[in-house]
Amino acid sequence: MENAKLIPWFILLNPLIAAALILFATRRDHGASAVISVMSAFFGLAASAVAMTLPEVHSSVLWINLPGLEVPLGVSIDHLSRVMLLVVTGIGFLVHLYSTVYMEHDESKARFFGHLSLFMFSMLGIVLADNFAMMFIFWELVGVSSYLLIGHWFTRDAAGKAANKAFLMNRIGDFGFMLGILMLWSTVGTVTFAGLAEKNAVATLTANPAFLTVALLCIFCGTLGKSAQFPLHTWLPDAMEGPTPVSALIHAATMVAAGVFMLARVAFLIGLSPCAVEVISWVGGITALLAALMATQQDDIKRILAYSTLSQLGYMVMAIGLAPDPHGGAAMFHLFTHAFFKALLFLGAGAVIHSLHHEQDIWNMGGLRKHMPKTALTFAIGTAALTGFPLLSGFWSKDAILAAAYDHNKVLFVLGLFVAVLTAFYMTRLFVVAFLGKPRTEAAHHGHDCPARMTTPLIILAVLSVIAAYGTTHWFFAHEHGINWIVATLATGAFAVGTFAGYTIYNGKDREPLSLPLFRNKFYFDEIYGAIVAGTQDVLAYISAGVDALISGMGRALGYAAWGAGATLRLLQFGNLQGYAFIFGLGVVGLIYFLIFR
Amino acid sequence: MSALNLIVLLPILNAIVVMLGVPARKSALLSSWAQLALSILALLNYDRTLGGYQFKTTLHVAPEWHLNLFMGADGLSLVMLFLTALVTLAAVWVTPKIEKRENLFYACVLLISAGAAGAFASLDLFFFYAFHELALVPTFLLIGIWGSGERQLAAWKITIYLAIGSIILLVGLTKLYLAQNVALLPGHARTFDMIVMAKTPGLIPTAEQGGIYIWLLVGFGVLISLFPFHSWAAPAYASAPTPAAMLHAGVLKKFGLYGLIRIAVPMLPEGAKVWMNLLLVLLVCNILYIGLVTIAQKRLDTMLGYSSVMHMGYIFLGIAAGNVIGVSGAAMLMLAHGLSIAALFAMCGTLRQSSPSLAFSSMGGVAKHAPFLGYAFGMAAFASIGLPGFANFASEMMVFFGSFKTGATPGALTFSGLQIATICGLWGVVISAVYMLRAYRKIFQGEPLAGSEPVKDPSCCVRWPVILLLAALMLGGLWPKSFLNFIQPSVEALIAK
Predict the structure, then answer these.
(1) CA of B114: how far to CAs of B7, B13, B159, B199, in Å?
(2) Most exposed residue of A59, A139, A425, A427, measured as fewest CB within 10 angstroms of its CB?
(3) A-chain residue closest to B424, CA distance
(4) Residues A431, B100: Cα–Cα separation, whole Å
């Protein structure tokens, strides 16, 4: 049993060691750095597989221990973290493998792998954390590693900007998150999840529903940032400036799912506040809808997928709000299946971008089906799973969410169904334009399947996208999970409508037949936020700087006045500092003498 | 003679021999290494099971006044001495070739270190104050003689401000000295002994505490750049030669905070309550208002100067909390801020030497040709905006927990003044990310500017000190107990029951 306690610590620290080794020792040796990073990802996967067989494990040390404040660093493997470990290390390993080819000719490959390992460490910390404070620590670290990876190609201006934006949006969310943690702690006196779940703690919290609701909504702000929910969603599409493997791992499968995971972790608290639950489900629903609408008019293959990720994350958050389930429920189920097919789609997009020499506009593609059949086939499977093609993994998990909506909130159910139509529509558009028809550019003619180290992860993920929902439902649901036939039928209908519309509108087209500027321009959120920042923060900063110049001037005037005119002032103008310092010293000594020894 | 006396004496002796003509840089490096070694030795030799003040030595100066050069250290002083020694070493190490009057330059740097160390090691009220004054004069000289930009103006400004601050502080300390209720003291005579003063409950009559506290708050406040007495800081740091900026922002400025913890917290708890709301307003101004001013800066050196002013707000917040969590966090943040701002100013100095201007508009893409600088500056910047892994985060977290706890009514949806200040402080964390990341993007990311010589990585003389500072920051960030174990018992002893 003692040995079992070492396993979570090993899972956590192994990527940190790899990152430290790479960043401090092998930074100049690209090959060795890649090997270290991939090996550590593999060990992590192996250890997580072992962890699946273990009973619940918990182990912690006190990090800060002050009277009244105990902050432990604790790791726990339980029903929730087990599944998440598998997702993070599994997809993490495949992405590492894929990156060895994708980043082959990058001149900062070692730095890339070092940061990738740092990300794995941070993410696993969130998964294993047994308390809010530790989760917050790793929450911030994930933000840093995401910043570093988005800005990997930092000489590009857009990459630096996107990295900053991601970090700041997350910080805004974390402002609320930390405040929520402080509020809960000030009431209950503990930050551990186990402590918060105790009867006394729950009783204290439920005694004041308004306070609890505000605290929970503050904590939910963390999710708004990390899982890019409306209104803090604008950073995720820009984050696509990072290398594509990063987009697959961090900005599709794992980090952005951390917000959902955190909500599932504290679902026992969220369920206590009907108001918080309502807000959470609506925020999720609105995000799902807005993002899906925006996705319909994007041309960049990665951005379409990014908006799709936003939309699917909205589904998950909505599911948490509809039915907070400490076992994870529909939200974690969808997180699980989504991780596979979205990672698959991103890696597929990466293969296309790689072989087309950094072409990302789908209108400059076309006919890729013939030139890169393996990529096209796996991409088709990913698309089918995402759009809810019957019996694939996405169908089951989306069905679980829609069923929850059907049971609890009919308006959100209709909204969810409509999003399902949109999902099928924009994904069909993407697939038809990029993979079917004829090549529209020279680059598209020369597309080719990538080496085995890149296609193998695609094939593995494609298989998982098909089967992931079979035999795994008991990980997410405490009770037997049945299927709601009405919902399943309607969802299949939504899939059919969306796919049919997408196919008929876009098949054989060479340019965008629809023009919907509102969606194309993402509802002008970036412009609005830019105006808000310019109108508040920048103006305030400008005014403050002006006021400060005034204070500074007043200080100077006061100084002159206090010092009086005459000799001192003349000395001042001559600028004889040494002389002044001497007089100053004399003056101080005299004053001391006068005041104390008089 | 104890290790403690040596830590203070070494730089003074060194300054004297340097003025007599001994090779300045070599001897200064040697003595700062020795100072650092001694401070670490003192930390290791401090008996934590025993606690309290150790390494005590007394030199009778004026027995009839009970005035003694009384030195000794508890965990808090030892941590501050460690900060002093480490930043001194770094400051001496990064000093570039000095063209004019090199020996005087190093003597000044060493005297700042001696003054700061002396203040942190003194347990006698008089010498606690006097040592700080000793450190101020060389600071003015360094800025006025070796500074850059509008150095004369900056030197005058800091001189006038800090001199007035010192005098206000002196009045406050004198009032404190005179207000002692002698009936409670052994021998029925007033004392300068800070241990006795802190340990005698009711020594300062409740009615007089408020009147004394405000003098101390303003006096120390000017030295710490508490709003609205902060305008000396940014121009002074921008003009100061690199070692002076590192030592003043990193170490000497902490004297005022140290004084508040050492004097105001134990001796004037009632006075603190009287002025609590004022302090909260001022510290929130330090965080939010100065934060906004920092955003508006267009040069790296003034931005760092203002950011250093802003971060004082968090330390004040911890002190205002007045409980063990908050004050320990504040004390640890003093260390963390000192280390991180010293590292930032060290690298700012390198950039000043190798690029035409420190204006953001004329910099760019530095990380491409100077990867070390890109990494190290990034780490120090992340440390200063409170990212986990560095001591600043752990300290800020303690400050926030400490200040949010005080005055809370569990479960009620109303916030106390301290809690509102905490919330403002949390938003300050967003503000600091805005200016730091923007500066980093402008200077280090993007393509190097065409037409100018690309900035190259600095020599080992800058690298090693920066690495040492960052290593200490990470030690405190990854395992806060390494410093907290010293700070916490001292703080517990100081906080009046």
Answers:
(1) 8, 10, 19, 27
(2) A59
(3) A175
(4) 71
* CA angle at A163 for the pair A157 and A168, rounded to the nearest 5°: 125
Mean pLDDT of B482-493: 92
A598 pLDDT tier (thresholds 50, 70, 90): very low
Average pLDDT estimate for B3-12: 90
**Contact assessment for residue A234 and residue A319, using Cβ atoms and an 8 Å cutoff:** no
CA dist., res. B314 & res. B394, Å (int): 12
Which tokens in the block code for residue A227? 């899982």
Q: Determine the average pLDDT of the residues in A538-546.
A: 85
Contacts of A595 in chain B (CB under 8 A): 170-171, 174
Distance CA B364, CA B441 (A): 8
A569: closest chain B residue by CA = B156
Of A138, A171, A541, the CB nearest to B433: A171
Enter the tokens of residue A487: 């919902």
Write the pLDDT tens digit of every residue in A489-517. 999 999 999 999 999 998 888 888 888 88
Chain B neighbors of A182, CB-CB under 8 A: 400-401, 404, 422
Decide: A253 and A146 in contact? Cβ < 8 Å: no
Among residues of chain B, what percentage have pLDDT more than 90? 54
What's the number of CA atoms in the CB half-sphere (13 Å) around residue A219? 30
B60: which strand partners?
A: B68
pLDDT (tens digit, 9 = 90+) per residue, B112-141? Answer: 999 999 999 999 998 999 999 888 889 988
Asked if A64 lies within 8 A of B394 by C-beta distance, the reply is yes
Q: Please give the backbone phi and psi of residue B67, each rounded to the nearest 5 degrees, phi first.
A: -100, 115
* B126 reaches A (C-beta below 8 A): yes
Q: Give the residue on A whose Cα is nearest the Cα of B366.
A: A155
* High-pLDDT (> 90) share of chain A, %: 48
Provide the shortest C-alpha distance from residue A126 to chain B (in Å): 13
B385 in Cβ contact with B440 (< 8 Å): no
Provide the pLDDT for residue B409. 65
Chain A hits for B412, Cβ within 8 Å: 208, 211
Which residue from A minimizes the CA distance to B402? A69
Is there a contact between B133 and A588 if contact means CB atoms under 8 Å apart?
Answer: yes
CA A165 to each of CA A119, A232, A287, A425, A529: distance values in angstroms, whole numbers, following the listed order? 18, 10, 19, 29, 11
Q: Which residues of A touch B325 (CB under 8 A)?
A: 66-69
Average pLDDT for residues A532-561, to the nearest whole number?
A: 78
Write out the two tokens for A585.
């010293």
The DSSP bridge pattern shows strands A69-77 and B54-62 to be unpaired
Those residues with Cβ within 8 angstroms of residue A389's Cβ, 6 or more apart along the chain or in another chain: A395, A495
Query: pTM of the predicted model, to two decimals?
Result: 0.91
- Residue B396 CA to residue B385 CA, distance in Å, equals 10
Chain B residues close to A591, C-beta within 8 Å: 167, 170
The nearest CA of chain B is from the CA of A552 a distance in Å of: 5
Crossing angle between the packed helical segments B151-178 and A577-597, to the nearest 10 degrees: 10
B400 to chain A, any CB pair closer than 8 A? The answer is: yes
